[in-house]
Amino acid sequence: MNSQLTLPAPAKLNRMLHIVGRREDGFHSLQTLFQFIDLNDHLTLAARDDGDIQLTQAVSGVNHDDNLIVRAARLLQRHSGTLLGATLAVNKQLPMGGGLGGGSSNAATTLVGLNHLWQLNLSLEELARLGLQLGADVPVFVHGHSAWAEGIGEQLTSVTLDTPWFVIIHPGISVSTPGIFQDPQLTRDSRPITMARALQGGAPEWRNDCEAVVKERYPPIAEALDWLAQHAPSRLTGTGACVFAAFESQQTAQAIAQLASPHWSTWVARGLNTSPLHDALGYL
Ligand SMILES: C[C@@](CO)(OP(=O)(O)O)[C@H](O)COP(=O)(O)OP(=O)(O)OC[C@H]1O[C@@H](n2ccc(N)nc2=O)[C@H](O)[C@@H]1O
Ligand SMILES: Nc1ncnc2c1ncn2[C@@H]1O[C@H](COP(=O)(O)OP(=O)(O)O)[C@@H](O)[C@H]1O
């Protein structure tokens, strides 16, 4: 058995995101298309015999015990009853609170990776159910395929999306997800659409219902969206702060990225239909 693994934790984009209601527990019912991109954090996971869970280096602004990597490892340890522990390290590339799902993806890679290292043989469905306790976005990263998601993001149907080159811009601020969901001005009554309709793509369905409120509260995000819209239809991912636009070629995407303000962080990344995590583990 491998006693150490290094695995990717990819980012996601919400190609569209509609808010179709609010549940009694305050969470919002969504309809969204998730797609992975080839932009990754990397986690190194090693099993240990003493039952301890240790993340070796700090992630800035997050306490050790609050880190989603540590929380995911402890959750799986409790759930499975294993006596093994883990030493964990993360190489962070993805901006935090950027709508790219980095924290959720780190949690999913921890669950999937430790399931292997600890030889627990839990199914992806079981790991996704566990992951939902950590965040609404964790299940799609466990699932590992582009997906149409409903509920709070946990009812997943695999789909195949186009795989353009994206320009992704982080305007250097972070958005409070709870703050956006609590905003009285948020559109939360979009009419539910069918998956087939969503997959047809294009306006008006490929919009993000959080965008109006986010633009109002965070002018730098409005600025990035408006700048990118000069080149191709631009959209917010999740509750932001990242915005993105799709291009047919890597060359065009790179040319646009080079024009972006040096005050922003800008990436060019390819859309993917399968998660690099699952490719690495040979699930497919
Ligand atoms: C809206 C999405 C779309 O991908 O945005 P991003 O976070 O990626 O930007 C996600 O579903 C977010 O998922 P995640 O970031 O894991 O959020 P969570 O930790 O589960 O929730 C943070 C808070 O946002 C609110 N929340 C979250 C999800 C949801 N469907 N309805 C909500 O009302 C709740 O107040 C919750 O306490
Ligand atoms: N390993 C982690 N990586 C990133 N964020 C983490 C991690 N553990 C906990 N967090 C917390 O989760 C929040 C959301 O992070 P992230 O998933 O990157 O953003 P988003 O949900 O906007 O895509 C962060 O602001 C941070 O406080």
TrEMBL record:
Residues 67-144 form the GHMP kinase N-terminal domain. It holds the Pfam family GHMP_kinases_C. One of its GO terms (biological process) is terpenoid biosynthetic process. The active site is at 12, 137. Residues 206-257 form the GHMP kinase C-terminal domain. ATP binds at residues 95-105. One of its GO terms (molecular function) is ATP binding. SUPFAM superfamilies: GHMP Kinase, C-terminal domain, Ribosomal protein S5 domain 2-like. Its EC number is 2.7.1.148. Gene3D superfamilies: 3.30.230.10, GHMP kinase, C-terminal domain. Pathway: Isoprenoid biosynthesis; isopentenyl diphosphate biosynthesis via DXP pathway; isopentenyl diphosphate from 1-deoxy-D-xylulose 5-phosphate: step 3/6. It catalyses: 4-CDP-2-C-methyl-D-erythritol + ATP = 4-CDP-2-C-methyl-D-erythritol 2-phosphate + ADP + H(+). Keywords: ATP-binding, Isoprene biosynthesis, Kinase, Nucleotide-binding, Transferase. InterPro entries: GHMP_kinase_C_dom (IPR013750), GHMP_kinase_C_sf (IPR036554), GHMP_kinase_N_dom (IPR006204), IspE (IPR004424), Ribosomal_Su5_D2-typ_SF (IPR020568), Ribsml_uS5_D2-typ_fold_subgr (IPR014721). Catalyzes the phosphorylation of the position 2 hydroxy group of 4-diphosphocytidyl-2C-methyl-D-erythritol. Belongs to the GHMP kinase family. IspE subfamily. This is 4-diphosphocytidyl-2-C-methyl-D-erythritol kinase. It comes from Vreelandella sulfidaeris. The lineage of its organism: Bacteria, Pseudomonadati, Pseudomonadota, Gammaproteobacteria, Oceanospirillales. The gene is ispE.
